[in-house]
Amino acid sequence: MKKIKRNKMPLLAIIMASYFVVGFPDGAFTVSWLGISDDLSLLIAHSGYILVGYSVTYTLAGVLLARFNRFMKLQTIYFYGLIIMAAGFIWLALSLSFMMALAAITLYGFGTGAMASSMNAYMAKHFSAKHNNWMHCFWGGGATLSPLIMSQMMAVLSWRAGYFVITGILGVVAIVLLASMYKKVWINDDDAVQENIENIVVKEWFLTKKWHQIVEIMTFFFLGGTDYTLVFFTGMVLMERGLSLEAVGLFSAVYYICMTIGRMFFGWLVKWLKEVPITRIGIVIALTGIGVLYFTSNIAGMAMTGFGLAPLLPTLVSDTSNRFAPGSISKLVGYELAAFGAGIAVLFFITSLILEFVSLEALFPIGILFILLVFICNEILAHAIANDIEKRD
């Protein structure tokens, strides 16, 4: 676990509170789409174009992270991502056509991707898997609160007003980030090296081969396809089995609640277990949960799935710094988050075709396959590290 002598609590508080807003785009859109589609006379099919547009720019931001990091610090990229997200929200609130709305969403998709990739890279460099899990709890909080804000504003005024309110919250966060950078609260790379000098262990067994990086990136590709695909289509499967719309809505809520609880729990568990065992435990719990859903349609399966998937993204991101040389972390984490976004778009699309032409019941075997691929990729790298250490010893 990374240890830095100086008090990190003020910085952690800023990071956690600001990462709260990274969950706003996903949560707000699930509610605002009802008003957007009605106002702009859109069809359900238009949502597919929007998902692809958002995923493309989210992915692009991750791919470009290393290049941006050559010219500016990760926290600066994070701040600019916030500004781009806010601009996209304002643009969307003012949109009068589908093309304007699509352009706005692709814009804030880039901002969201820049924020997510830069802060995950920062956390991988300077903090532990515990802190990264807790940071992602705040993403869950933002994804939970933003639909409530949007639904209330739509009940009183409109979805456009909802996005203006959310943009106001982003403005407050932007001021806090600016103040923290002015006060030099953030840890720079040079500071981290100086402060960790007594704790650094020189490692000569970092993974260096190109195929190692490819496997690492593919881990996140399959993980991205697992999460969103399961949440989106599980409701359809359960409704076909006879469950009510209200019950299906409860399944989704339980999933995200258990994911937030899971990240808190596994963040605490990092005190005793390293990243690889935590990843294995999470995968086993998620596989069990999907099995329960498949055979029983019980809400306990949804809870277990959310709880099991909870630590995978933050823990795998943190483990990047254990497997690869420090100089490649920003680039790799950027590619990882880009692959995560690409997995959402590509695997979601492939799954939708299979479910349409085969059966909705194919969802759970597909979900199991995706999680097994995450497991296989992670195990390949874990064994590569272990074998390299053994050879050097």
Any overview of this molecule?
By secondary structure, the chain is an all-alpha fold. 81% of the residues lie in helices and 0% in strands. It is built from 16 helices and no strands. The chain has helices at residues 9-19, 24-39, 44-63, 65-69, 74-93, 98-126, 129-156, 159-182, 189-195, 210-240, 245-269, 275-296, 299-309, 312-323, 329-357, 363-392. Helix 5 (74-93) packs antiparallel against helix 6 (98-126).
Please sum up the structure shown.
The protein has 393 residues and is mostly helical.
| Head-to-tail CA distance between termini | 22 Å
How many E-type strands? 0
Give the integer mean of the pLDDT values.
Answer: 81
Number of H- or I-type helical stretches = 16
**What percent strand?**
under 5%
Radius of gyration from CA coordinates = 21 Å
Structural class, from helix and strand content?
Answer: mainly alpha
Percent in helix: over 70%
- Summarize the helix and strand pattern as letters: HHHHHHHHHHHHHHHH
Identify the overall geometry.
Answer: globular
Biggest β-sheet: count, sense, barrel?
none
Q: Low-confidence parts lasting 5 or more residues at pLDDT below 50?
A: 1-5, 192-203
